[in-house]
Design goal:
The chain contains 19 helices and 12 strands. It is α/β, with parallel strands linked by helices. The protein folds into 2 domains: 147 residues, Enolase-like, N-terminal domain (Enolase-like, domain 1, 2-Layer Sandwich); 241 residues, Alpha-Beta Barrel (TIM Barrel). The radius of gyration is 21 Å and the shape is globular. The protein starts with a strand and ends in a 23-residue tail after the last helix. The relative contact order is 0.15.
């Protein structure tokens, strides 16, 4: 198991900036599972961070290495739940969570790498592996501990059996038409109004029927930016808002109501992702504006409570925040049980590449619909991946290459590994001649704007 600390200096263009995270440097704690099998295939996985602390996340990956080395490739490919159960079951590492935080994100990265390897060995993309799997096997991959009061294995099995009905026709439609997307690319908080307007107009011209703006730092600025966005996209394109956990409950209600005149479709992460009752209160107060959350929800248990409390209109699972594919299967099943649409969080480093598989499986073999369902798309850093996500006419095209679309180019790993990759060493060397300049970015140095796509 090889691990890498990969960082991109996105803060220098304010890409990804929002009210809570003003200067993110998109980063990935990345791993490769290599085997001695004659096929030469490897499993790739990662979890997403935004700069400082990525080294801590890599250390968490390294702590899991003893649970992975020496295991049978055949066994893990046939039952990825083996490694999921082993990693979440280490009692001493579990003490650091349990099932949340840095260790749980590391577990998700390793589990996702196992699924990547399993799908490659099967010769199919991950969404296809999941959609074709027997319902009984999929149920065996889910940990029902702590959620059985809301979703039993028997109920999950019935949902999956019903989901298989008509799946062949939906797969054909998916391959022909893709899956609906929305874009956050115009909406970063650090962008000027002119850049926001230009990118919003370009998004509509590219076929997107929903865009998203970051809000929450200054109400007057948000009113001005929402006015500019609505003017750019017209009345028929959905406008979603994202506060990135900035507000207290009462503040979230007041602020959302103040922006209601711009007809926002949802308000995302209006308060702490752990505040179930707060989300319920906000949802009741701001309707018909929908409440969406999930990218920082740490496990299936919190999702269960959000659904039980009628606290959320849109579930936004994240491929790399929870315990990998296995736990995301649980979350998809919970959302299906409660009849709440799933609109995955994406962007960052590689999240678009991953979540498309989960949403497409959900459409083909579980919920059976794309109504009111969209996958987030952010046009950053895709060129570093062997099989990048492709969006045409506002829709994700179904990936056809075997695996989980997680594999980065070796050259990208060598260039952006921190601190010894060629980009960062050159950057440090350039800073040595910059005099008394203020430090900026992941390396703590000043540099000119840098192109970070391959």
């Amino acid at each position: 198991m090889d691990t890498y600390d990969i960082r991109f200096p996105t803060s220098r263009q304010l890409d990804g900036s929002d009210a809570m995270n003003p200067d993110p440097d998109y980063s990935a704690a990345y791993l490769v599972l290599r085997t001695d099998a004659p096929d030469g295939l490897a499993g790739h996985g990662f979890t997403f961070t935004i700069g400082r602390g990525n080294d801590v996340q890599v250390a968490a990956l390294d702590a899991l290495r003893p649970h992975v080395l020496g295991r049978s490739v055949e066994d893990l490919s046939a039952d990825p739940g083996l490694v999921s159960r082993a990693l979440t079951g280490d009692s001493q590492l579990r003490w650091l969570g349990p099932e949340k935080g840095v260790m749980h994100m590391a577990i998700g990265a390793v589990v996702n790498a196992v699924w990547d390897l399993a799908a490659k060995r099967r010769g199919v993309p991950l969404w296809k592996l999941l959609a074709d799997a027997e319902p009984e096997w999929l149920v065996s991959q889910v940990d029902f501990r702590y959620i059985a009061d809301a979703l039993s294995p028997e109920e999950a099995l019935e949902l999956l059996r019903r989901g298989r009905e008509g799946s062949a026709g939906r797969e054909k439609t998916l391959r022909a038409e893709g899956y609906p997307a929305y874009t956050t690319s115009p909406g970063w908080l650090g962008y000027s109004d002119e850049k926001l307007t230009r990118l919003a107009e370009e998004a509509v011209a590219a076929g997107f029927t929903q865009i998203k703006l970051k809000v929450g730092a200054d109400l007057a600025d948000d009113i001005r930016r929402c006015r500019a966005a609505r003017a750019a996209i017209g009345p028929d394109v959905r406008l979603a808002l994202d506060a990135n956990q900035r507000w207290n409950v009462a503040e979230a209600i007041e602020w959302t109501q103040a922006l209601a005149g711009f007809d926002p479709y949802w308000i995302e992460e209006p308060t702490s992702p752990d505040d179930i009752l707060g989300h319920a209160r906000i949802r009741a107060a701001v309707a018909p504006v929908k409440v969406a959350t999930g990218e920082h929800v740490q496990n299936r248990i919190v999702f269960k409570q959000l659904l039980q409390a009628d606290a959320v209109d849109v579930v936004q699972l994240d491929a790399a925040r929870v315990g990998g594919v296995n736990e995301n299967l649980a979350i998809l099943l919970l959302a299906a049980k409660f009849g709440v649409p799933v609109c995955p969080h994406a962007g960052g480093v590689g999240l678009c590449e991953l979540v498309q598989h989960l949403a497409m499986f959900d459409y083909v073999a579980l919920s059976g619909t794309t109504e009111d369902r969209v996958i987030e798309f952010v046009d950053h850093l895709h060129g570093h991946f062997e099989h990048p996500a492709v969006v045409r006419d506002g829709r994700y095209t179904a990936p056809l290459s075997p695996g989980f679309s997680a594999e980065m180019y070796p050259a990208s790993l060598a260039t952006f590994a921190y601190p010894g990759g060629t980009f960062w060493t050159d950057d440090l060397a350039a800073a040595g001649t910059a005099g008394d300049a203020e430090p900026v970015g992941a390396a703590g140095v000043v540099a000119e704007s840098v192109e970070v796509t391959a």
